[in-house]
Every structure is written in structure tokens, then in C-alpha cells.
Specification:
Shape: globular
Strand content: under 5%
Distance between the termini: 53 Å
Structural class: mainly alpha
Largest sheet: 2 strands, antiparallel
Low-confidence stretches: 5-9
Strand order of the largest sheet: 1-2
Helix content: 40-55%
Length: about 220
């Protein structure tokens, strides 16, 4: 039975990838104004305005509603498709993503990607001591446990890299921990090559708290 479950999950991921490729191509021709209208006033099928949870400028709200401003359109689009297909399970976002049309999901993603990101590409100094666990994990990783440095994928200062590795420096400790739990529970797609699913299994709650604190301090330092 478990083998069937794994195969089904893998097939769902493949179908999601195929379905969103065309949507990514559409994003280039979607003006941000269309998504702005949805974000501020809601969707055509009664979906509430995004700003009511994610803030007027996509700045996020607490541990539940993450910041969206400046994240790559392709990444945001893929998350909306994952919510809509139940590949990423979330009781708040699933009905919203399902209530948006495919074009509206593209439009919203393009709009939030057009907003300036608050995360700056600040390169932290390479730590020489493990006394600062957050700095060590972010800049060096913990290779003996198979954990690469956060900066290797998410860039200097956690600014994000490409369409698959979003900015993380402005995420709260609570939100980060919730995502680690989701990856460990299999309720969130593990991303390219299943990388985050593998890393999440090796992170402790203290690791996440330390990384969040490190990035927060780094972004405020300059």
C-alpha cells in the first residue's frame, strides 16, 4: 500500500509540473495590474483579497501568512498550483487557490513578483566557530549530518536564487518551523530533487530558530 501511495504522490508531482509549465510561459504576458486587482479586491469567483492576510504590500503577517513581495513568479505560481491540487496541504490556502482560475493564479504570482523584496543580498562573514549555530548553518552547513549551507541554495543573506529557491531571510521562526513540519509529514512538496524534504528531516526546532535569528540580525546589520 505504501508503494502505491508513493507512486501516486510522484505522479501528482509530475502532473503538477507539466500543468504549470504552460502557466509559467503565460506569466511573461501577464501585466502586474491584473494581479494587483485580485490581490486588492479578490477573485472573480468570490476568493477574498490577498491583502487581507498577506498585507497591503505583500509583507506577510505573523507565522501563518508569509511575505510574498519579490518572490519569483514561477515559484509563487507553483505553490498556488500545489495548493489547488492538494500536493501542498493547507486548510487556509487550499480553498483560495482552488477558487482562483488558472489565469488568476498566474496574475497574482506576477503581481507579487513585481513588488520589491525587502531582503538584501548581504553576505555574512564565514564563521570560524560553531558557537553561533545559526551563522554556521546558514554560511557553512552541517555536512556531517548532510545539511548544506542555506546560502548555497538560497543565496547570500537568504535573498533567494532563481525560480526554485525563494528568499527566506524575512521568514519568521514560526513559519519556518511549520514548513519543516509539513515537509516531514509529507504535506508539502519537497521541491527540486526532494532537497528540502531531505534537509528538513535533519533540522531541529532549535536549528530553525537559530537560522531565523541569524538572518534577522544580518538583514538589520547594514
Amino acid at each position: 500500500m505504501s508503494g502505491i501511495s508513493i507512486c501516486t504522490h510522484g505522479l501528482a508531482a509530475m502532473l503538477l509540473a507539466a500543468a504549470t509549465m504552460e502557466a509559467y510561459a503565460q506569466a511573461a504576458s501577464s501585466p502586474p495590474q491584473r494581479g494587483a486587482q485580485i490581490a486588492q479586491s479578490g477573485g472573480q469567483q468570490g476568493v477574498p483579497a490577498c491583502v487581507s492576510c498577506h498585507g497591503a504590500q505583500g509583507e506577510g503577517n505573523g507565522d501563518i501568512y508569509p511575505p510574498l513581495a519579490g518572490q519569483p513568479a514561477a515559484y509563487l505560481q507553483r505553490q498556488l498550483e500545489a495548493f489547488a491540487s492538494n500536493l501542498r496541504k493547507n486548510p487556509q490556502m487550499a480553498p483560495i487557490a482552488k477558487g482562483l482560475t488558472e489565469q488568476e493564479r498566474v496574475d497574482v504570482a506576477v503581481f507579487y513578483a513585481s513588488l520589491p523584496s525587502p531582503v538584501r543580498p548581504v553576505q555574512g562573514p564565514l564563521p570560524t566557530s560553531k558557537d553561533s549555530n545559526g551563522a554556521w548553518l546558514a554560511e557553512r552547513g552541517r555536512w556531517e549530518d548532510g545539511i548544506p549551507a542555506c546560502s548555497k541554495c538560497h543565496g547570500p543573506g537568504g535573498v533567494g536564487v532563481g525560480n526554485d529557491f525563494p528568499a527566506i531571510a524575512h521568514l519568521s521562526e514560526g513559519y519556518m518551523n511549520a514548513q519543516v513540519k509539513a515537509w516531514n509529514a509529507g504535506s508539502r512538496d519537497a521541491g527540486p530533487l526532494g532537497l528540502m524534504g531531505s534537509v528538513a528531516k535533519k533540522l531541529t526546532a532549535q536549528d530553525v530558530a537559530d537560522v531565523a535569528a541569524y538572518y534577522r540580525a544580518l538583514q538589520q546589520s547594514q
